[in-house]
């Protein structure tokens, strides 16, 4: 009886791994042991008050893959903590977890208070210099679901590289910690932290390149933007946000007196976005300004939209923006800004008082070789006065044209057509219930910029409408 009982105890101890040697290694693990496990004898319950740090030395160009198994839960004081070579600590609770230790050092720290937790991990040294290289200039926006087995180099022509991220949810994305940042041109460069820490600390590269990699091949639901640090370092604050068509953007933004801050917005699905709200919280403070320009700060294009607290009214919104990437600059503002990244019914409404700008897609996408033809309209139930001022029209290819047509369903319409390049064509006006703008220019050499406003109709009768329009138009043409 006693014998059988003892035998049973030993059998149970063995299945629990209690016979396993858990002595803490005194020397660092190196590439001389390219694979191994701790405890070497297999998974084991560790004794109470155990405290051990296992160190790794990792050559440049390699990572150590750690495959961890443990049995503990959130409510224990027994811990397994990993430290990467940028001194970031990772606490692991989840059973069966992979971790990649980047060069050149790593630590795994096991500490217990109870005798109830089991730990086990296997390691493997893996060379990573044969990864595929993906080259990107600064000014690139990309989805951060990076392909495993590839590294992503961002290079600046002007100096240091800054990197910012925006999550799909709008909240902090913890998966960013699985993307690793190297301060240089490839994975032989100095590891400087995971992307979560790197962006939280607002770190930048030392040289002209920054390299990102995701050894885990995990899905990271965020987008990232690489900028020349020189293009954003003058801003007091710089942020990057993702715009989704199923979620309105709305932020309270502040830039201090005498300084500017900026944000780049990237619309992941819709090629058209509308600014829906600008609300200056201290409307009596002069000098506040919100400006919008195409692309990222790195490209440094001119502003296409400027809203100064002095003359801004809600009638200037919604304002169409025909690009996925644009940058909003705030000059000493305290302001709410809202945007919607999807077609807008409000944009088309010809309410008296409205004003704004119509820019061709090529103005918003200066590096696109070809853009889509452009068409938009404003309409209303009752006649209104459409006033428009085509400040520039460029026709890159014979046959392309800009046509602006004003009319109503019950009368014939009037239109102006530009089939050659012109600037400062002068303000024109016509009455009707719709204004259609149709631009067939698609090359990056073709563009137009047009200011419009919609006013109360002060005359009636369609003849007057046409004559009024023609008179003004002829007048302009004869100048
Ligand atoms: C484990 O040992 C290290 C080094 O001796 C010490 O710094 C650390 O505080 C100890 N941890 C625990 C939980 O006792
Ligand atoms: C990690 O180790 C566990 C148990 O040893 C094994 O089942 C699993 O397949 C390993 N995972 C990977 C990704 O190697
Ligand atoms: C963890 O430690 C704290 C302080 O030492 C103690 O109050 C707490 O009860 C412990 N928790 C568990 C689950 O042992
Ligand atoms: C585990 O600890 C408890 C009390 O803390 C003790 O009674 C028990 O004998 C220990 N078990 C082993 C296998 O050391
Ligand atoms: C990343 O996500 C984007 C958008 O969903 C998709 O187009 C792209 O193919 C994905 N890339 C990878 C490597 O999964
Ligand atoms: C990141 O920024 C922090 C805070 O400015 C600084 O202490 C740290 O040294 C920087 N790290 C790197 C790798 O440059
Ligand atoms: C702004 O100025 C106007 C006119 O001077 C005044 O009536 C209004 O109360 C001021 N508003 C605020 C918020 O100070
Ligand atoms: C237009 O596209 C061509 C071809 O890609 C390019 O060489 C040229 O620089 C572009 N022009 C502008 C004004 O961006
Ligand atoms: C404006 O035009 C659209 C599309 O043609 C139509 O659905 C809408 O009813 C019109 N609105 C008015 C006020 O006429
Ligand atoms: C522009 O239109 C005028 C008048 O319709 C026509 O005579 C001319 O040939 C057109 N020019 C081009 C470049 O299409
Ligand atoms: C714009 O003008 C072109 C050329 O006249 C025409 O083919 C096209 O149908 C027009 N687009 C719209 C939406 O009216």
Automatic annotation (TrEMBL):
InterPro entries reported in the protein's UniProt record:
CUB-like_dom
Q: Which domain of life is it from?
A: Eukaryota
Going by the UniProt record, its keywords in alphabetical order are: Signal
Q: Which residues form a coiled coil?
A: none
Residue ranges constituting the CUB-like domain according to the UniProt record:
22-128
Signal peptide range: 1-19
Record's keyword annotation contains Signal:
yes
Q: Which Pfam families match?
A: CUB_2
Please report the name of this protein according to its UniProt entry.
Answer: CUB-like domain-containing protein
